[in-house]
Design a protein that fits this description.
Layout: H1 2-28, H2 35-38, H3 42-55, E1 67-71, E2 85-89, H4 90-99
Antiparallel strand pairs: 1-2
Bound molecules: zinc ion (2 copies).
């Protein structure tokens, strides 16, 4: 009885693990990820590099040094439009965040 039930149980368990695994990978791409962690993801780094390359300079002072991508809105975090991002040099970026505090 137990011997025939066991394989079914194992299949059931692996299905649960599969679903759970998928759920985890979905969560890792979603808004539930802490913002600091999101900034470490290859997806964000890629997007930030892209917008920096496109604009090429700071939106505030025109500097081309130490450029960073700044979020104008977090609404589409994880799948930002280019319009959601602003390229700022490190100094202007820090100042922008100070202003908002
Ligand atoms: Zn600047
Ligand atoms: Zn910022």
């Amino acid at each position: 009885m137990i011997q025939t039930a066991q394989p079914t149980y194992l299949i059931g368990l692996s299905v649960v693990l599969l679903i759970f695994g998928n759920a985890l990978s979905v969560v890792s791409c979603s808004k539930l990820m802490p913002y600091d962690e999101y900034l470490q993801t290859p997806e964000w780094r890629e997007r930030a590099a892209q917008v920096k390359m496109l604009r090429g300079k700071c939106a505030k002072c025109g500097s081309r040094e130490r450029l960073e991508a700044h979020h104008l809105t977090y609404e589409r975090r994880g799948h930002e439009d280019m319009a959601d991002l602003q390229v700022l040099c490190h100094d202007c970026h820090m100042r922008t965040h100070d202003d908002h505090r």
